Amino acid sequence: MSKFRTSRARLVAATATTVLAALSLTACNDGTGANDEGAAATTSTSPSSDATSSSGANSNSTGSTGSSGGKSTAGSTTAGSKPAAGAPASKAPGSSSKPVTCEGSNTKTVAAPLNRPVNHMLLTVTNTGSKSCFLYGYPTVQFTDAQSVPPVIEDSQPQAVVTLEPGQSGYAAISLSATDGSSESGYTAKSLTVYFYGRSMSGIVGVAAHPSLPAKGVYIDDSIKVTYWQQSMDDAINW
């Protein structure tokens, strides 16, 4: 009886061992257990690929942003920006160099007695401005205590209006007195004022000039006359 129990116990133990072995084999084949741990280990060691992927994404993102920024900048440059509202428009070429009328504020006038012709004085007007100016007609001169302005010598009129570029000079001569003493009302003048005509010749314009006279003054009589403005000194002293 005891032998029978011992054999039965061994049979049960052997059966149990076989069952456990079968269960272990089944567990290995269903993708769990050791195989699962290996898969988990493989997954846990792959952040480098994620980092590479992330880095690549960041690189692409940066490149896209840089390209977009570059296009935007280039676009704004090549398109050509319009002038800001209220910005002054450029002046047309030459608009600031339009000629003006010569007068006392933009010229310098010098009065100098001449030895030849005798009893003559030369007026020299120099353009001191930055624009060309026109000397219209003839000078209107007034000496000390003069009751009227001298008439002009009509034959001295030039063919064109005298034009002075900056720094250039124009001329007119004054016949002060008769050389033979035939005229009357002579006296010595100590001061002189020169007035300028405008284009219409209807009246004086601008500022008068006050050229100095010699300390002893100049002798004038009622034969006094002036020439038209001339472009050259030689043309002025011919009268």
Give the helix/strand layout.
Blueprint: H1 2-29, H2 34-44, H3 47-78, E1 100-101, E2 107-114, E3 120-127, E4 133-143, E5 162-164, E6 169-175, E7 187-189, E8 192-197, E9 204-209, E10 218-220, E11 225-226, H4 233-236
Q: List SSEs in N-to-C order.
A: HHHEEEEEEEEEEEH
How many helices? Answer: 4
Biggest sheet layout:
5 strands, mixed
Q: Into how many domains do the coordinates divide?
A: 2
Pairing-aware structural class of the strands and helices? Answer: alpha+beta
- Low-confidence parts lasting 5 or more residues at pLDDT below 50? 1-7, 18-83, 87-95
The oligomeric state of the chains shown is single chain
What portion of the residues fall into strands of 2 or more residues?
A: 15-25%
Radius of gyration: 57 Å
CA(first)-CA(last) distance: 177 Å
Q: Percent of residues in helical segments?
A: 25-40%
Shape type: globular
Mean pLDDT across residues: 74
| Total count of strands | 11
What does this structure look like?
By secondary structure, the protein is an alpha+beta fold. It has two domains: 2-62; 100-236. The protein is built from four helices and eleven strands, in the order αααβββββββββββα. The chain has helices at 2-29, 34-44, 47-78, 233-236; strands at 100-101, 107-114, 120-127, 133-143, 162-164, 169-175, 187-189, 192-197, 204-209, 218-220, 225-226. The strands form three sheets. Strands 1, 4, 5, 8 and 9 form a five-stranded mixed β-sheet that branches. Strands 2-3-6-11 form a four-stranded antiparallel β-sheet. It has a two-stranded antiparallel ribbon with strand order 7-10. A hairpin with a 6-residue loop joins strand 8 (192-197) and strand 9. It is globular, with a radius of gyration of 57 Å. It starts with a helix and ends with a helix. 16% of the residues are buried. Residues 1-7, 18-83 and 87-95 have low confidence and may be disordered.
